[in-house]
Design brief:
This protein is mainly α. It has four helices and no strands. Helix 2 runs antiparallel to helix 3. It starts with a helix and ends in a 19-residue tail after the last helix.
């Protein structure tokens, strides 16, 4: 995965800049005590999709891995994935 990521960034260096900018915005939102805006979350998702496509273009072998990751992290539209799991029972 790292090799495909690095190849995608090498093919389109603007991806690295966009990644850095979005992560800085997310960090600033967290540090302000406010949750990231829906717009920022949408920008982050759009960037992730763009980076994933660039990684698949660089190395098609990562496609099934990315699909599994996306399926494991899928949240319903407009939702946050539901309530967190309950804590483990005390022993």
């Amino acid at each position: 995965m790292k090799k495909a990521h690095d190849a995608a960034i090498a093919a389109d260096p603007s991806l690295a800049t966009e990644d850095k900018d979005l992560h800085e915005q997310m960090k600033a939102a967290r540090e302000s005590g406010e949750p990231p805006s829906d717009d920022l979350k949408a920008q982050m998702k759009a960037f992730r999709d763009k980076l994933d496509a660039a990684m698949v273009k660089a190395d098609s072998a990562v496609a099934p891995i990315l699909a599994k990751l996306k399926a494991a992290h899928h949240h319903p539209e407009g939702g946050d994935g539901g309530a967190p799991p309950p804590p483990p029972p005390s022993a």
